[in-house]
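In response to reviewer comment 3 from the previous cycle, which asked for concrete evidence that the modeling workflow produces usable outputs, we include below a single protein chain processed end to end. The sequence was submitted unchanged, and the resulting structure tokens are shown without manual editing.
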Amino acid sequence: LIVAVAAAVVLRRLSRDPRIRAAWDTFKLNMPIFAKLNRMVVVSHFTRTFAMLASVGVSLIDALGIAAQVANNHKLTRIAKELQQVIEAGNPVAKSLKKYDIFPPMITQLAASGEEAGRLPEMLNKGVDFLDKDIERTINTLLVKLEPALTVIMGAIVGFILMGVYLPMFDYMRYLK
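The workflow returned the following structure tokens.
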């Protein structure tokens, strides 16, 4: 219990260090199994916040900054700062989004059509709705793939608990004879 509490305190302090936080965020986006899911979730939060703020009249530059804070990812924060500079220079949002591989092509294409139609926030919201459905599908697929491993792990835990209960009983029986 003491080790668990100490580990939690150490991890909490380490997570406040910007360099470690940046390395952790980068690791989450490049994890072997969960990278695609993490990228989609971060982009979904960022894009939905950006679209919502843009739809209520917040300037695109300010909306990008706020959306980066909501996404809570170091890499996306850096990308948002670069996007702010590029958009301030007069470049379109969709063209700017295409430069970064973190944004799915569907989001950039919907942003392009939204800019042409003058309905950028609505089109980004539609893109995020599709992205959220894709996130749900990905989670279901991962759960199906992880279910056998979780079953084996739970079986091992139950086995260790049973061994902890029955082995002392068998040892006690030996002394009764």
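The chain is about 85% helix and 0% strand. We consider this sufficient to address the reviewer's concern, and the full set will be provided in the supplementary archive.
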